[in-house]
Amino acid sequence: MDIFKTATFKQSSITVTGTIINGVLGALFYIVLARLLGPSDFGLVTISLTTLVLIADVADIGTNTGLIRFVSANLLVDKERAFKFLKLSLEIKLIAWGVVFLTFFFLSPFVATQIFHNFQLILPLKLVSIGVGGALLFTFATSALQAYQKYFLWSIINIISNSLRLILLLVLASYFMLNVSNSLMIYIILPFFGFFITLFILPTRKILQSKDEFKLSRELFKYNIPVATFSIIAAFSARLDTYLNAALLSVREVGIYGAANQVVAVIPQLVSALGLVASPKFASFQNKQQMLTYFKKFQLLVSGICLLGILAIPIVVFLIPQVYGLPYQDAVTPFIFLFLAQLVFLFSIPVHQSIIFYFARPDVFIWVAIVHLSIIGGLGYLLISSYGVVGASITVLIGTTFNFLYPLIWMLIRLKKGGDHG
């Protein structure tokens, strides 16, 4: 078939292969951590890492998406302008980290005791304020590699970082030194390592030497503001299920749900990997015909991956108690619903990418994010109260289904009206 000869397939193959390797390394990391810590301590880690990712997503204020769009659009026609966007994005992230650290580090005792009602979270949440910086810098590095379409190097950086993270975990485990705090430290340190390695790959000197980058801030923020708005809402709704579990259920049940979530974590990584290839391409298309030709090939590729995922469900259901241990037997049912939800998310990526990067209408997802937040918060509260972690996973499936259908309808209407470039 012609699809196997396209640059899209070749580039996607590189990122998907790298993502699968990373997914295996990540799964091993969390399996070892979950087995050795037990459901209760793993629940504390789950709450801490969920908070870290949430704050990093909010603090990013859409910078990653803006970086990819503007650097990809300018790299071939005006490299100096692309360098300015890279420098401006890095400066925004460093400022955001400074604000987060100065606030959340000192608010951690209040958050731990008054919101989560667990004093054991005080130190882990203080570590989170440091980890946010690593997350922001690492996503700057990976977004820059994405804009430069250096997919192989993107994969290598991720593989090296995840390998070292697993090795450090095993070293601590072998010396019986593993606990909640130092397992979080392992997670926090490696993104900084990945960022500094990437500086040797990018034209860092040219980026840092570029001048007057703040003159581009209005253009960047004009695009970033709607991205940031829906990203912040989406960040809350994507983690609200875990926080509702923490508020309504025991720490042990949070750990069970966290284990189920980690089993399906490879799908969001696949989404990121495919988006890595697709977003700069959608941003570069100049007419509807170019976009639709690529869209159809991309959707076919994604559909094949989803089919493989469905076929793998019985195998994973059998393996969960074998791999995680009998204390995690209750993770099987929520896994099924969460996995189906992530497959819906994966299937929707071509639609999402085309709207954000070709039509340049990230504002569409503001309403998507608001409704999704309402679903997770309102329906989630009712289902979790009645059905525990199973109710939480069903809510996530309903939410991702809406996240696919609304943008799909918007896109079909826009194409019917002419489908002009954004």
UniProtKB/TrEMBL annotation:
Keywords: Cell membrane, Membrane, Transmembrane, Transmembrane helix. The keyword Cell membrane applies. InterPro entries: Poly_Biosynth_Transport (IPR050833), Polysacc_synth (IPR002797). Pfam families: Polysacc_synt (PF01943). It is a multi-pass membrane protein. It comes from the Bacteria. It is found in: Cell membrane. The chain crosses the membrane at residues 12-36, 94-115, 121-140, 152-178, 184-202, 223-240, 260-279, 300-320, 332-352, 364-384, 390-413. One of its GO terms (cellular component) is plasma membrane. PANTHER family: O-ANTIGEN TRANSPORTER-RELATED (PTHR30250:SF11), PST FAMILY PREDICTED COLANIC ACID TRANSPORTER (PTHR30250). This is Polysaccharide biosynthesis protein C-terminal domain-containing protein. It comes from Candidatus Daviesbacteria bacterium RIFCSPHIGHO2_01_FULL_40_11. The lineage of its organism: Bacteria, Candidatus Daviesiibacteriota.
